[in-house]
Design brief:
The complex is a heterodimer of chains A (250) and B (287). Chain A is an all-alpha fold and 250 residues long. Chain A has 11 helices and 1 strand; from the N terminus they run αααβαααααααα. With 287 residues, chain B is mostly helical. Chain B folds into 2 domains: 24-51; 68-281, no CATH class. The termini of chain B are far apart. Classes of the chains: A mainly alpha (250), B mainly alpha (287).
């Protein structure tokens, strides 16, 4: 009488078992790959990185042509800028004596320094463009309408913060491009009626772009404005969920 | 027993249609991952091909000509060439940001929400608004830089002579018209009001007209006229329509101002073609 015996596990099966069903792995990832709808929803709801998302969303909203991922990509640029920015901070000292020298060192002697700087620069430009395009997307899809009014206002504030983040970073290389761009830029701010000259003085810590301006712009660029932007972004993302997800026709 | 006050949106969100929904994992997470990868790779590639600029060390004694703000502020720098500095650099952008922030409080009905160009005529209105913004801004820039008068003379042999010289650009309204002397110093306040170092007592009317009056008038009148005309033409019905025209006009004007400020402004902020654009490194001691 032939008895059906289960096939012996292959080498690959045993290897898979050893790698993913051991005590250590299971302590990090409590479940395997979520391959049932129930587990897929659970993983989005319980994973710290994914839980900003809802577990389900309307099918029109996963079409790339609806959002072009512009808001998500703006946030992704912010994350990338944080990473490359931290790497640059290891080598950069915001003093008039050192700043330009440090820039040259980043470009010539630091491993991948030029690459990190390039990434930081181009990502910053990309973020400004993406944020603006995201605003256009939200406008032309009518997604600012009730109940999302206030999230649109937060978006306008985030647009300004993006400009300010980029502007404060512009001075840091301390080259001619940076120096004169900030001189022109702060002169524009200084032209404000009544409060202009004072606010320009506070921004620069003096009457001209100098050591005080450098340290002020640096502090705003690496901690003040990112913190502020992060707070507004948190509210921005949370409000999307609170207001019922992405807008869709009634 | 105290009941928890649950924050609710002011207006009711759409009812959920569960059978129309898909799972975020994998349908959305996958797209997000791909988009992030595409951008990471593209930016790596760009960073390998193009280096971020680094010029000579900052030197307050050497002024490059032209000195320009970062590109996303060049629209304001361009505006600055045509009007009062406070107006161009601070008041106009601030007011515009407030207007833009107020869009959803002005346009409140839910029509056309959540779809690209969801209302009737919205594509047409966007195109008209955008085109008027682009063409109108170019026209104004060309006029105010005196290029319009130059082209009329150079290409068509048309010259207004001295009679129409005051129409050459905005500034010539102040300089070429026989303004009576009293109009250059009109006392509107019996005493001098000083607010943080600024005097408010006398008004130089021609100067005010050229630097503030006409630019403000143009910026208010052009969009208003456009919206009015489209309303009379039967294309604008709702507040949403008006806002679409306004926003599209802004995008067009913003684009032109940024491009002109970036690529068409040469030495001394002279209007030139992009291929004529040269930057002088500046001579030490000369500002």
């Amino acid at each position: 009488m032939a008895v059906e015996t289960p096939a012996k596990p292959s080498l690959a099966d045993r290897l898979y078992d050893k790698m993913f069903h051991n005590y250590l792995w299971k302590s990090i990832f409590r479940t395997g790959y979520p391959n049932t709808p129930r587990n897929q929803m659970l993983i989005v709801a319980t994973n710290v990185f994914l839980h900003l998302h809802p577990t389900r969303l309307h099918r029109t909203h996963v079409k790339v042509t609806h959002t072009y991922c512009l808001g998500g990509l703006s946030f992704f640029m912010f994350l990338g800028l944080t990473v490359t920015g931290i790497l640059l901070m290891f080598y950069y000292v915001p003093s008039v004596e050192r700043a330009y020298l440090d820039m040259q060192n980043i470009e010539t002697t630091v491993q991948f320094g030029q690459l990190m700087r390039n990434m930081h620069r181009w990502m910053a430009h990309a973020m400004v463009i993406l944020v603006f395009m995201h605003m256009m997307r939200v406008f032309y899809t009518g997604a600012y309408k009730p109940p999302r009014e206030f999230n649109w206002v937060i978006g306008v504030i985030l647009l300004v913060l993006t400009f300010l983040l980029s502007f404060t970073g512009y001075l840091l290389p301390w080259d001619q491009l940076a120096f004169w761009a900030i001189t022109v830029g702060t002169n524009i701010a200084g032209a404000a009626p009544v409060l202009g000259p004072k606010s320009r003085f506070w921004l620069l810590g003096g009457f001209e772009v100098g050591p005080n301006a450098l340290i002020r712009f640096y502090t705003l660029h690496v901690i003040g404005l990112p913190l502020l932007a992060a707070i507004f972004m948190a509210v921005h993302f949370w409000r999307i969920r609170r207001d019922g997800g992405l807008a869709r026709p009634l | 027993m105290a009941t928890a006050a649950v924050a609710r949106p002011a207006a009711k969100p759409q009812p959920r249609a569960r059978d129309e929904e898909v799972l975020v994992w994998p349908d959305l997470v996958f797209i997000e991952f791909i988009a992030a990868m595409v951008f990471t790779l593209a930016l790596f590639l760009l960073s390998f091909l193009m280096n971020a600029p680094l010029l000579d060390q900052a030197n307050a004694d050497v002024t490059p000509n032209p000195s320009k703000a970062p590109w996303y502020l060049l629209n304001l720098q361009e505006l600055l060439l045509h009007m009062n500095a406070a107006l161009a650099g601070v008041i106009v952008p601030t007011i515009w940001l407030v207007i833009m922030g107020a869009f959803p409080y002005f346009d409140r009905d839910n029509d056309g929400q959540g779809v690209w160009f969801g209302t009737e005529n919205s594509i047409k209105l966007s195109i008209i608004g955008g085109l008027v913004g682009i063409v109108g801004t170019w026209f104004l820039i060309l006029w105010d830089s005196g290029k319009l008068a130059f082209f009329l003379n150079d290409w068509f042999g048309f010259s207004g002579g001295d009679t129409f010289r005051f129409l050459e650009n905005v500034r010539s309204i102040q300089t070429q018209l026989p303004w009576p002397e009293w109009s250059r110093e009109i006392t509107y306040s019996p005493w001098n009001i000083v607010i943080i170092g600024e005097d408010f007592q006398n008004l130089d009317f021609p100067g005010w007209l050229v630097e503030q009056g006409i630019p403000t008038g143009v910026m208010v009148a052009f969009p208003s006229l456009l919206i009015f005309a489209l309303w009379r033409a039967g294309m604008i019905f709702t507040r949403r329509d008006a806002v679409i025209v306004l926003f599209s006009g802004f995008v067009g004007a913003y684009l032109v101002l940024t491009v002109v400020g970036t690529a068409f402004r040469g030495q001394g902020q002279e209007l030139v073609f992009p291929w004529q654009l040269k930057v002088s490194e500046g001579i030490p001691g000369q500002h």
